[in-house]
């Protein structure tokens, strides 16, 4: 298995996205009075989109690493 090196800004961007996803998940509100952006469907959709973007970013980093 080969090592992969990423640039600091790539690492920072990935960590920021992961932290934002965790923050969004922490604010889920199951009550009937919840604001739209705090409802479970919104949280799931936002988290799913964030995870898809992270997978895309990580695959790009992998491709870039293989092309070096």
Walk me through this protein's architecture.
With 68 residues, the chain is an all-alpha fold. Helices cover 68% and strands 0% of the residues. The chain has a domain at 37-68. Helix 1 packs antiparallel against helix 2 (40-66). The model has no long low-confidence stretch (mean pLDDT 93).
Number of strands: 0
Shape descriptor reads elongated
SSE string: HH
Note the total helix count: 2
Which structural class fits the helix and strand makeup? mainly alpha
Unreliable parts:
none
Average residue-wise pLDDT:
93
| Radius of gyration, in angstroms, nearest whole number | 16 Å
Strand content: under 5%
Largest sheet: none
Taking the alpha carbons of the first and last residues, their distance comes to 16 Å
State the helical fraction.
55-70%
Using brief descriptors, characterize the structure shown.
single chain; 68 residues; mainly alpha; 2 helices
Compact summary:
The protein is mostly helical and 68 residues long. It is built from two helices and no strands. The protein has helices at residues 8-26, 40-66.
How are the secondary structure elements laid out?
Elements: H1 8-26, H2 40-66
Helix pairs in contact: 1-2
């Amino acid at each position: 298995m080969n090592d992969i090196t990423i640039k600091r800004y790539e690492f920072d961007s990935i960590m920021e996205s992961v932290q934002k996803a965790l923050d969004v998940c922490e604010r889920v509100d199951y009550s009937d009075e919840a604001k739209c952006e705090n409802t479970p469907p919104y949280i799931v959709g936002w988290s799913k989109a964030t995870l898809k973007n992270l997978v895309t970013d990580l695959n790009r980093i992998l491709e870039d690493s293989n092309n070096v």
